[in-house]
Amino acid sequence: MKTKMIHVALKTGAAAMAVGMALASSYAFAQDTAPADDTASEEQTIVVTGSLLRRTDTETPSPVTVLTQDSLIRAGLTNVNEAIRSVSADSAGSISTGFQNGFSGGGAAVSLRGLGTSSTLVLVDGLRSANFPLNDDGHNSYVDLNSIPFSSIEKVEVLKDGASSTYGADAVGGVVNLILKKHVTGIDGTIEGGVTEKGDGGHQRASLTAGFGDYEDKGFNVYISGEYQHDSAISSRGFPYNTWDLSSIGGKDLNTFDSALTNNTSNALVVRTTQTDLNNPLAGGVAPIPNGFFTDASGNQQPFSNYQLVGPASACTFGTFTVSTGASRGTACKHDLAKEWSTILPDQKRYSLTGRVSLRVSDNIEAYVAGQWSHSEVFNVGRGAGVPNTNPGPNVIRATQPFGGSPSLASSNPGIVLPVYICSSGTNCATASDRRLNPNNPYAAAFANDPSNGAARIYYQFGDIPFNFTRKNDLYRVNAGITGSIADSWDFRVEGVYARDNFSITDRGYINIANLLKAINTGSYNFVNPALNTDAVRQSVSPDRTTPSHSTLASIDASIAHSFVDLPGGPLQVVVGGQVRRETLENNSRNADLSYYTLTTSAAFGAHTVAAAFFEVDAPILEQLDVNVSGRYDHYSEGFSHFSPKVGVKFTPIKEVALRGTFSKGFRAPTFGESGPRSSFAGCSGYTPPATFQAAHGGATNPYATNYSLCTGITGNPNLKPEQSRSFTAGAVFQPVRWFSLTLDYYNIKKTDVIVQGPLGGQAKDAYYRGANVAQACANVAAVGAGYSCNVVDAIDPLFPNALPRLLIVNAPFVNGASLITSGLDLTATATFPLSDNVKFTSRLEVTDIFKYDLNPGGGAPIQKYVGTMGPYELSSGAGTPKWRGNWQNTLEAGPYTVTLTAYYVSKIKQVAADEGEGKVPGLTCADDNLYGTGDAFCYAKRFIDLDLNVAMKVADNLTFYANISNLLNAKAPIVPESYSGVNYLPSWHMNGVIGRAFRAGANFKF
User: Fold this and answer.
1) What is this structure's pTM?
2) Which pLDDT score is estimated for 413?
3) Which residues of 605-615 are buried (b: 16+ CB within 10 A; e: fewer)?
């Protein structure tokens, strides 16, 4: 007997059904959404993402892209990250695995409509999951796409429309719904391997799924699925993706590591200075001593003010350079840190288990319980290198503060000095009985009787200490539900989910400040020949630090639906329901005690309970006209509430044309990183103190008073309001003939109360320097606004101890301070040509054209226009907003053979950004605003086209072999010198152009 599965008899006419079929097949990669079970009833109804009601087709007023696993494999996509980010609606703020400079190195996230990862809701089987515990940029929340097992996916539905009226917060840009397999019988699996043309980037993937129980006949089904995937690291590529020196092709030489003495290198460089406290290497003077001579190790007379290599010049692997003019003179080793230390992709392993038990309790009631465990492990050697001088490699001898800033700014700080004397205790070495001259300090012998004037300020990068991190992520998720009908007309649903994401990151190569100072005073660390350092010494200076974090989600959803009356176009359906969920986050700081140099202090904590009530009404007023109304009220335990309404209309005047449109309001609740009172992260940049401060410190010749690294600690603000949105779409579906269909959808989204990072931070910094002393200066900062305060003040200037010291960190809160509007057009088209009885050609096109992406910062500041530029540069990955994105897939099916060629397109990007720097205004030009500073030269990242070829051969009903070539024509990524997420390239859009041609082959089997 067939199951009567919550069926609602929709009286849709032939015209509506024809348009529905066209819509279902019209999106790029889309396939007919047949039930997973081949024996399922033709009358089975489905729930389409964005609606709570069951229906017999996928057509709704909102645009939905449907990606089935078969179509994804046909396109050569074999992980969830690649699949979702291939959708053209993914834009600014998208995070790719190749973006390793961010907080979420190795993670991946989608940003529909360019509104950020926090404004795109990712669901699994229509239910929320726990967010990744490590917020990107210290505050953006998202579900890590790399934690979802690809083999368990039945299909992916991407709703490109606001959906807060159905799902609540965060669905402003749209919804990605990952729909897992429901019923499996027999055994099926995949074995796959691959490698790049360069011989690296090895890829292995294997999956196996086993299930039994004929659900239709027996009333139950059980399956379990396992998956393993390993992608080996890609460490480097050739020019121009491995250097900041583009002078050979007419660009700028921004590699100052082979020309500036004070840049840190893995060959120690020193200059003589003073030491006010002989027991404290942080008590060095701020400037070289300008006179006097000493005899170096070769017996030559050298001025004390020259910068000296501690080791021999023969140790300079890449040669030396000499600066012979100006105040800073000397010889140092050449380096190109991007070439030596940057990486393209990390080593990543993923394995998972998924299981489900489905049970038909009665003819009208079904129940299920499902569970998933996935493990992701990322090992990154070095780090992805972006903007020049951001130190992609091992850590360096820093200034006195343990955080932020460019290494090139370290020369303006007191820094660290090597004393004249060392001793076994590391304390009171100037008078200790076992004191001895410091072999790392070339001035020690000459100043044995004057140790206060013989200190050696050191510039050094710890090249002998491995610099890497391991990121482990374990996601546990269990969900269960019961659905059915009562009295043949009342349909109910009760589902619950619990998810916990356990995350840990082990940082290696970061320098422990206290242990480094001890190693300097005892002489245990060999700066002259670092190769002689023992592992014990290296581990002491740089002990591994493992930081655990976690997030949880527990939710229960319930709804009941009923068809009340029959309208001319079908039944009037109404559904009402509610949800209660609990979310928590403990994102611990990796450097809470400030004991390490440069290790991030970002942290976020929070917990809240959300209660919601929702409804949806679908009224097919006529056979040609359907109206859908929905709304949801959410109340947060923080004390705020929000109601989100939505109206959708679908009009089918003739069978060849359907018109549709929606209007909705939505919201994004503040993340725990933005609202948690204990949440914060620091961002640093160069700052030049005012002239009055410089005068108090002896003028601009005193490095203490010149440009230095000043950080802003962005702190959580419990008084934040939710961001609000207004969006509408208008579209049409055309099918003039059976073999061709076309859809056009216009979208327009406006967000208000946009949460931004302390816009008065600059004023707070300036306010500090108007104070005569620390107390008055910090009072000035607090007067700027609520939440602004001094965080860390630098050590005093040894030359002017009574003058106001520098400010190192100023606290600034998140605030609701901006609005933005974005609009554009989505086009999808499908043409199918039967060439013979067993030969068919199908062509599908998906394109997104962004008309507008404008941010109004508020406060009278000019509107920032981002379309076609690198803006918003400060958003995740700084990849900008390409005006056009698209993909075109062409498939030829001939008997057992299938050949698919897919082209991906990203339009050119202008290397300007309205949110980068001060005083930027609309109409940015290459001449004045090129971020690379070269006018028209290198102002545009050229458009990028990537072709992927996939060939499959079905040798039997249960066995298919396939092969894939990505970047078939070996297209090169456009040169983007101002990318901060990759060396001269944008990982979000151009990664295949850096990797180059790559090959994969595998087999699918089923028994």
Assistant:
1) 0.88
2) 53
3) bbebebebebb
